[in-house]
Specification:
The protein has helices spanning about 120-125, 215-220, 250-255, 270-275, 295-300, 340-350, 390-400, 415-430, 450-460, 480-485, 510; strands spanning about 25-30, 45-55, 55-60, 75-80, 90-95, 110-115, 125-130, 140-150, 155-165, 180-185, 190-195, 210-215, 225-235, 240-250, 260-265, 285-290, 305-315, 360-365, 365-370, 375, 380, 390, 405-410, 435-445, 465-470, 505-510. By secondary structure, it is α+β, with helices and mostly antiparallel strands. The strands form 6 sheets. Strands 17, 18, 21, 22, 24, 25 and 26 form a 7-stranded mixed β-sheet that branches. The radius of gyration is 30 Å and the shape is elongated.
């Protein structure tokens, strides 16, 4: 399932549907003793990551190219989903790249490959294996090392902007070409490359491009973990000159928030010993630091966020007369009809997160007593001042008692109910508490009459603390629902304004009800 899943996503009903994503895993790659394929200078290696899908190897991602280096440490971090109950085969292929032609698939550019599973790397944390050429031949003494890290829940990321001033000049005829590397120092004293900036040519006071790294990658989410930052003078033959280094922590970096800057002396330990009045080899300045926290659904629930559910039921005539056994609203004394089955299936999952277990239950598209005028947002317990029912069972009872009293009618207008819940969510938004989230569950048999208004209402709602789950009941044409879901592209209002977030999830109940 490659679609972004929103809460309440129905699993695809296929035997090989993945159960649960256990976590995401970050993989870092380095190689030693690569074969030298270039006559004049050393190989320019690049790693491709392939995954097996239906027996075929597919390229998932590739690293940067490192010039003239037979022992490369790649800065690229590969991220893969880890399903622990599946055997997920990986293949790493190392190629000697030739600039613009891209990574060659010529045999003479192939420096070797290695296969393993995600499970092996996760279990061993660090895997070193020989690289093999075609037909099982060893690629000399070449090895590849893959290090894995599971991304913990706290995967916010941080954006950093560095510059340097007055760096030492390492080049005779021009100025240094500096780049910066950041290493995280792990508990076993080993160093993990976190990030390598671009090279700024011919400049002793470079300003590097801002970049983003996950907190997991930068410091394993520990603010006091030591970081080593190194400035190099780039050399096209791979023999970079050391300019200087400094040590810091994420805790110290955070002083650069707002208007403040943090700076460090960039030190060359050799010069410090040799030169008597040596001060530094330049200074490195952190111009700006922004922390982007990424909160998960569970972070909100554990932080005390209350979820408020509203169920909206389609009472339009297209459902069929409730007295007729073909109707989706058929009142069957022996077993629940399609609407009740869908309501219970989704409601039972949702009610666990609703602290007071009270559900607002609304109907649309029917003529209702006393005057039998059409309503698109009536309380099915006929109490306009309090439309809440006690638990899913309360909704079921209100539904059963309301059916005989109303006349199924039309049209199928969904926008009024979306707007009604949105008004409540907007009031909550004004409190700035983030303590309530609203979920609207719409049960409908298909085609929406007020599609333009509905799209407009969803775009408005996407700015509020609410989500919409639409369950399609019966065997109608659900094309409209697929459009609202927005998985095939971004849903836009009639004026062309896109949704701020994808808040709609559509589930055809016919595909869902047979899955255990």
């Amino acid at each position: 399932a490659h679609r972004a899943t929103t809460m309440g996503e129905a699993p695809e009903a296929s035997p090989q549907a993945p159960l649960a994503v256990l976590s995401k895993v970050e993989l870092r790659v380095s190689c030693k003793h690569l074969l030298d394929r270039d006559t004049l200078n050393k190989s320019d290696p690049c790693v491709l990551l392939l995954m097996q899908s239906q027996g075929q190897w597919m390229e998932v991602d590739r690293s940067e190219v490192i010039k003239s280096n037979l022992n490369p440490v790649f800065a690229k971090i590969f991220t893969v989903d880890y399903y622990f109950e599946e055997v997920q085969k990986l293949r790493f292929e190392v190629y000697d790249s030739h600039g613009h032609a891209g990574v060659g698939t010529h045999d003479d550019d192939f420096l070797g490959g290695m296969e393993c599973t995600v499970g092996q790397i996760v279990a061993q944390k660090r895997v070193t294996k020989p690289l093999f050429l075609k037909y099982g031949k060893f690629a000399g003494k070449s090895t590849i090392t893959v290090i894995s890290e599971e991304i913990s829940g706290n995967n916010g990321y941080v954006e950093l902007a560095f510059r340097a001033k007055k760096l030492d000049d390492k080049d005779l005829f021009s100025k240094s070409d500096p780049f910066l590397e950041i290493y995280r120092i792990d508990d076993d004293r080993s160093e993990q490359l976190v990030y390598r900036t671009e090279v700024v040519k011919n400049n002793l006071s470079p300003i590097w491009e801002p970049f983003k790294v996950s907190l997991n990658s930068l410091c394993s989410c520990e603010e006091k973990r030591k970081l080593r930052c190194v400035v190099w003078d780039y050399d096209s033959r791979g023999k970079h000159d050391f300019i200087g280094e400094f040590f810091t922590t994420f805790e110290e970096m955070q002083k650069a928030m707002g208007e403040n800057k943090v700076q460090w002396d960039c030190m060359n330990p050799k010069y410090k010993i040799k030169k008597r009045n040596y001060k530094n080899s330049g200074v490195v300045v952190l111009l700006d630091l922004k922390i982007h926290r990424v909160y998960s659904f569970l972070d909100y629930i554990m932080g005390g966020c209350q979820i408020h559910f509203t169920v909206a039921i389609d009472f339009t005539a297209s459902n069929g007369d409730p007295r007729n056994s073909c109707s989706l609203h058929y009142i069957n004394p022996y077993q629940p009809n399609e609407y009740l089955k869908a309501l219970v299936a989704v409601g039972e999952i949702c009610q666990d997160y609703d602290s007071d277990k009270k559900f607002s239950a609304l109907g649309f598209g029917a003529r209702i007593p006393p005057k039998y005028e059409v309503s698109h947002d009536f309380a099915i317990n006929f109490n306009p001042d309090n439309d809440e029912c006690e638990g899913i069972q309360g909704v079921v009872e209100s539904y059963q008692s309301c059916l005989p009293k109303i006349q199924l009618y039309g049209p199928t207008n969904v926008a009024p109910i979306i707007s009604k819940v949105a008004r409540v969510a907007a009031d909550e938004e004004r409190t700035k508490e983030a303590s309530q989230y609203f979920i609207l569950l719409i049960l409908t048999d298909g085609v929406v009459t007020d599609m333009a208004d509905t799209r407009e209402a969803i775009v408005r709602a996407s700015y509020l603390p609410m989500s919409i789950i639409i369950v399609g009941v019966g065997n109608a044409d659900f094309t409209d629902m697929q459009i609202l879901d927005g998985d095939d592209g971004v849903l836009r209002s009639p004026k062309g304004e896109p949704v701020l977030r994808d808040i709609v999830q559509f589930v055809p109940f016919r595909e869902f009800k047979n899955v255990s």
